[in-house]
Amino acid sequence: MQCIYENYTFPVDQSFSISAEPFEIKKHHTLKSHANFEITLLENCSGKRFIGDHIQNFEGTELVILGSNLPHCWQCDKQPDPMSPPQRTVIRFFPDFLGKQLLEKPEAKQLSELFCKASKGILFTGSTIKKAKKVMREMLVETGMARVALMLRLLDILAQSDTSQVLSSPYFNSIESSSEAQKINKVYDYIFRNFKKDISLQEVADLIPMSPAAFCRFFKAKTNRTLIDFVKEVRISYAAKLLLKGGHNITECCYNSGYNNISNFNKHFKESKGLSPRDFLNQYRMPETENTKKMQVA
C-alpha cells in the first residue's frame, strides 16, 4: 500500500486544530504519515484499520491517538446505520503545543507517558469514547482559551483511560527512520530554511540526490503534491502570519515571504486561503473591532 507523507499547516491563529467532516466509504485508502500527532474519532462506519504493522477489522465508533510519522489509514466499506453518514473528527497537534516546559512538570507525567505510547498508536474503547466524544463536540464550537482548556481536558481523559490498547508492535520501525522519510524531511527542512529566496528544482533535487525528473516523480508520489505547490503553501502560510502579527503591509508581506510579484502573491494567497490578503486581514480584525466597541460602550 502506498504511503503519502503529509505536511500539515496549522491555521495561523491556532496552535492545534480540530475539524469534522463526512468520511468517505471506499475500499482503498492510501496510508498517510505526518510529523504532527493526531486524535481521530470515527463514527458510524465499519471496515479495516491499518496502524503501523497492526491490521484489524472495526465497526461502529473508533477513537485513536497517533504519534509522529506513524503510517495509518482506515478503509471504510459500509455504514452500520444507513440513515446517518459516516463522520470523522480529527484533532492535529504537537505535544509541545503549549510549550516544552509543560511536559516537564510532575503533573504531566501521565501525559508524557500517553505521548510515548502514541508512537505505536492507541485505541480507546468503552467509557473513554463517550467522555472524549462529548469534549470533542464542545471543542468544535469553542475558540481561544476555552478550546485550549477543553483540549487539556481531552488529553487528561485519554491519559487516565483504563480502556486502551497499544496497536502497533514494539518491534515496528516507524516510517520516520526509513530512507524515504529522511529524504522527504530533508527537503522539508531545506524549504523551511530557504523559502524567502528563489529555489530551483535542481538545487532541491541535488539534496537527495536525484535527477530533477526523478525527484518530481518521487516527491509527488510521496507527498501527493508538487514541489511548487509545497513552496507556495509554506510562503503563503508565513505571509498570513506576518499579516496577523502586524507591522507589515500587504506589499511587505509579499516580498518578505519569498515573492517578487504582487500579482502572483495575491493570486496564490486567494487560492490557498479562499480570500484576498486584504479580506483575510479584515476578517481577523473584525472580531477585535467589535470587542473594542463593546468595551467602549461599557
Distance between the termini: 60 Å
What is the general shape? globular
Proportion of residues in helical segments? 40-55%
Q: Please tell me the CATH architecture of the largest domain by its name.
A: Sandwich
Average pLDDT works out at 86
Order of H and E elements? EEEEEEEHEHHEHHHHHHH
Q: In the CATH hierarchy, what is the superfamily of the largest domain?
A: Regulatory protein AraC
Rg over C-alpha atoms, rounded to the nearest angstrom: 21 Å
> Which blocks of ≥5 consecutive residues have pLDDT under 50?
286-298
| CATH topology description of the largest domain | Jelly Rolls
Q: Give the CATH class of the largest domain.
A: Mainly Beta
What percent strand? 15-25%
- The overall strand count is 9
- Report the major sheet: 7 strands, antiparallel
Total DSSP helices: 10
Kindly name the structural category.
Answer: alpha+beta
Task: Give the tally of structural domains.
Answer: 2
Describe the structure.
- Keywords: DNA-binding, Transcription, Transcription regulation.
- Residues 185-283 form the HTH araC/xylS-type domain.
- The protein has 298 residues and is α+β, with helices and mostly antiparallel strands.
- It is built from 10 helices and 9 strands.
- The protein has helices at residues 109-117, 127-141, 144-159, 179-194, 201-205, 212-223, 227-245, 250-256, 262-273, 277-297; strands at residues 3-6, 17-22, 31-34, 37-51, 54-66, 72-78, 87-93, 122-124, 164-166.
